[in-house]
Amino acid sequence: MVTYIVRRLVTAVLILLGASFVVYQLTALSGDPLEELRASNAPNRDQLIQARTELLDLNTPAPLRYFGWLAGAAKCLIPFAATCDLGSSIQGEAVTTALLRAMGNTITLVTTATVLAIIIGISLGIITALRQYSGLDYGVTFMSFLFFSLPIFWLAVLLKEFGAIGFNNFLADPEIPASTILVVALASGFIWALFASRSWKRKAVAFVLGAVVAAALLFILELADWFTNPGLGPIVILVTGVGIAFGIVLLTAGLRNRKALSSSLIMVALGLVAYYVVNPILNAATIWMVLAFAALTVVVGLAVGYVLGGYDRGQSMRAAALTGLLMGFLIVVDRFMVTWPSYFNNPRVRGRPIATVGAETPGLDGTFWVNGLDTFTHLLLPTLALLLASLASYSRYSRASMLEIMNMDYIRTARAKGLSERTVVVRHAFRNALIPLATLVAFDIGALIGGAIITEQVFAFAGMGQLFVQALQRTDPDPIMGFFLVAGMLALVFNLVADIVYSFLDPRVRVKA
Amino acid sequence: MSAQTPADLPGTGTATAGPAHPVREHEPRGLSQGQIVRRKFFDNTAAVVSLVMFALVFLLAFTSVGFAGIPGWWKYNHTEFLPLIDGGAPTITGPFSWGDHPFGQDSIGRDYFAMTMRGTQNSIIIMFIIGALAGLVGVVVGACSGYFRGWPEAVLMRFTDIIIIIPVVLAAATLGEAVNRFVGPGAQIWLLGLFLGLVLWTGLARLVRGEFLTLREREFVDAAKIAGASNARIIFKHILPNAVGVIIVNTTLLMSSAILLETALSYIGFGVKAPDVSLGLIISQNQEAFQTRPWLFWFPGLFIVLICLCINFIGDGLRDAFDPRQKKFNAARVKDVGEPAAA
Amino acid sequence: MRFVRTSRAVGVAAVAALALSACAANTGTETPQESVEGEATGGNVRVVEVNAFSSFNASSSEGNVDINGVIAYATHSGFNYINNDLEVVDNEDFGSIEVLSEDPLSVKYTINEGVSWSDGEPVDGGDLLLQWAIESGYFNDATTDDAGEVVSGATYFDYSGDTAGLALTELPEIGDDGRSITLNYSKPFADYQIAFGVMNEGGLDTPAHVLAEKGGLADEDALIELIRTEPAGDPASPVERPEVQAIADFWNTGFDTKSLPTDPSLFLSNGPFIASAMTPDQSMTLTRNEDYDWGPMPKVDEITVRYIGEAPAQVQALQNGEVDIIAPQASADTAEQLEALEGVTVVRGNELSYDHLDLNFSGVFEDEAVREAFMKTVPRQQLVDSIIKKLNPDAEPLDSQIFLADQAPYEESAANNGSEAFGEVDIEGAKGLLAGATPEVRIMYNRDNPNRLNSYTLIAESASQAGFKIVDGGLGASDWGAALGNGTYDAAIFGWINTGVGVSGVPQIFRTGTGSNFNGFSSPEADELMDQLIVETDPDKQDELQIQIDKLIWDSKYGLPLYQVPGMNAHSDAITGVEYMPNLTGVWWNFWDWQITQ
Predict the structure, then answer these.
(1) pLDDT band, very low/low/confident/very high, at C213 (cuts 50, 70, 90)
(2) Which of A251, A408, B283, C408 has its CA 20 to 30 A from that of A334?
(3) Correct CATH for C351-565 of 3.40.1190.10, 2.60.40.1230, 3.10.105.10, 3.10.129.10
């Protein structure tokens, strides 16, 4: 195994070397860096052309120039020497600086969207596979393809129009007209009905239920002026927490596992206590504090599960830890909501919280909670756009994969043994269906750093995609090469990871040393 | 094994202790695989509807403005400047009352119907070239490396790695330059499709390889080997049909994403270039018109969505039809269908 | 039974929690009072720029980007600025320009007392001298071969502007007051007014004391001494100047940054504003320079600059109230969309760039009659109607090769230069001139620019009617520039940028054999007038000469100017004082008039 990895890494370096040469040449061929100057009528045009020629060393043929770049890049291999020289852009910024910054931005932008797309996409895929050819299946397929087919800049314009401008207008005067309540109620009822199983009666019940719940919720929220002063409060947290506990136990252990259920419920109770205890401390929260609390919660959850666990400790521990985490999440969400009014009324936000461009409100300098909200309001729309656009491929693949698995002999065997449908689906089918997806996911994570060129552009987000495209439009080789190095390296590494993961998940596939 | 059931049915009887569900009464006998596929496909309503829709779109696009020098029946073409009528608003009011400019006119008076149709043609051409090329290369590379392993795998997969890490946008930009410089704009559609096809097969190759890695270890492959089947036979007759689901899903997704990739490239200025048009190009050229003259958005957008949806539903239908294990004919019977014991 | 016990415990805990919550009123989370920042609440204007800030030195060739220029404009002062009527306005609060003698031209620049950098150092003679040394190319002694490769000597300061004007001056002396220098020109220089210390070019933007220190010298006096003693650059006998090189190297790249430097001396201000916060590629905040009182006084306390490239994104950000002033790429739809917005005002005007059709004075167009015939077929009105009118309803074809419609002498020149002969398409007239000939004309243009493509299409269609055989010579975005003047085409459609003020640009395009004279126009008479023009310091006489040159150009059937490119800004109605400005300074030109009404 180790030899295999080492060998792959060595080849990766060679590949990178070869490909970097190709990329450098392609860049040189892709345009004329003097274009804007040639057509200029500035009196010192010739001098400007000469300066640019000198800066980019254009009189040296591109294949030779490559080695100049390579010599600088090679210095990056010397550890701890800080001699890394990836050149600089036409505007004189060192590529290493620009890359670090762009990577940070891209990671903030793309990570959430990718993670959510994977989770939601795979769940939708599994559900639609289990209900193949039902209304739900067609509905989800249609919607996911619809979003997939919309050009993302178009999606972005729509999101900005309704998600930001419209919603901000609404927030300025949060009154929901009856017609809106009706439409939302109908839509909600429709979705509930889609999810309900096939009998028409149950669908009808679900429709009514969905519609009533949605309408009542909207009505109450409006009545309580929730949109100006949002918050969950202990009761909602408790009720939701209990719901979460049951849901998690249902999925991970089955409701018959009473030990798992009770450890989860204990975590809910503990969470509620923590809600009061931790509250004052959270005023001075930092990201590290929140992470530390999360870690603590997991430990406590595992402990509770261990103590109560009985013969199948693992299940209880998992369920309890997961429930605890989600409780913690609820508390944090509540805290953010409570901070909302002070964010909303901040003079720099001026009552228009949902942003259409950028990553932050310039000059806003508040607490962890205010800044967190600021990041949320800025990332909301681009994340949504990316999420909607990438749902389709995950849901399609997982649907196909799940369908295939559900027809396997061992599934039939499992059913024949009298296992519950939950066990069959979660334990036998789901895990195997994930195997082919592992490759896809690993690969997508590798490609993540490449950024989302158009999303970044329309949301004025200075990530890797922007860095790359702007350099390409100027025919500026060094940033392109820097981008390529980082993106290429990650792609290769995650390629390797995908292969290794595959051989782990599917023992029949052996990695040959 | 009976003739009509493909030789690769899993399980040699040990695991199937008899069907758990009622058996369908008659598995039609004497049908070739092609017939089964066709029947299954045509039993899938969504797929058939999509196929018909796509055929209509295809016909409309290629006959209306003509193709390859053959004139079409529409009175304008996508390059003529015409006087702007009513601010270029669309004149279509119903399926049979099209008016002079059914989809309106763009800002300099070109007929938007002609442009959309020409764009649809180009997008379909690009899509098919990419689908065919990437599908072919991807399957061959993936199959060979997954099946043979050893040095063919090493060489092919490292080659794949090189292609994967070269940014598609850069490749497209360079190509655009080359097209501008050395070839006329007429050939750019074909070249763009060709070029993107030669770059985009990598994902498919990896997926196919993954499938083959799993499948080659299965019992039926061993059985076929022992029976003396040649490598080619094992690959194409035994393993490939099992991988066809993944291949079709991936290829159709690839084809629809090809349209979107072209749109994206046009948006950043590296796709199809004026004076020729593609759906992506006209949408991105008119992106500022979104609120003022939305029809410049809706019509080409409608065609993009239509094509993507059709292709994917057709792909879905094909996948289900090709899947040798799946015997479902339609929704109502899903739960009842058991698999006839193969052994 | 354990489950029963635990569930009971859970139940008790839950009830306890509920009871607690009841005590804690409706929400258990106490709302901490977020401190609302006291700074700059009323006076913050948020402006959108397309490009991202990259350097505090907007005059170096790497830093010469529009956004760097406007930041330099807001953070530096100078002797004069250009207003939106393209007139030079003196800033007498900063200093004075005094013409000591017309011939030989001698101009004295004096900075007022009390003008200082934001670190307290006065802005003085050393700064003036350094600025002069940079902008005159005094030390440069580089010789280049045909390929543009430097064979000997060096170019020290990578100054992006034109050194031609100040190169005529000799090494100036600092006045006795320590706050002035006198520039003595070897021959009169027409654009002397805008040759030095113009705010639109960044004003006086290089602090000598900082550069001296960063370049390894003891202090500002050492730098002054260095400039005074080091011999002038002579390409014939280049010399090594390590000290100047060190200074120049720092000037060339040392001010490049995308984040706020920790060293405040790298972004000193001597203007109304000073940078206070920067987020790379996202935004930048300028706050008031407390000391500043030597020039127009701004009314707002803070300006936030945000970088948004896409026009639709700019519009939606304005609509969403995230920004106050935008300057999107002009397009008909953007304009219409902005007009429809409530609470938004659209400001329109022309840019300084204009598209034109040039005919080569060789090949098929060697014959003046053929050129004239071709010009007669160009549908200029139709071009304007179909390409420009939607953006600027008042647009008309441009009728002068030298003046733009925004300049005062335009009307007079357009009335006299014979342009009215080409106001209407005259196919019959063209046919008459061609006398049955069908010359083949290859038109070169940038195929990737939709406006040019449309211009070509319309021109080609019209010219074919008169019998011209038009060959499409359109080239891609990165090729057409290189093809200019290489003789592979007969006519070219492309754009020039007029500087709006000054006359140096005229000979650059129209003089025999100069760098941007791509079509081989040559008129000894015009050359002579241009020679007079560049040494004429009287603005009225400059106009007179230019009107004569304009007529000569039209008479020679040079080609046709087509139209000026329209521009536009939009701002929220919460802001007043925003006015259109055609040149690169854009909306920023009168940022001191910006005011928040609400």
Answers:
(1) very high
(2) A251
(3) 3.10.105.10
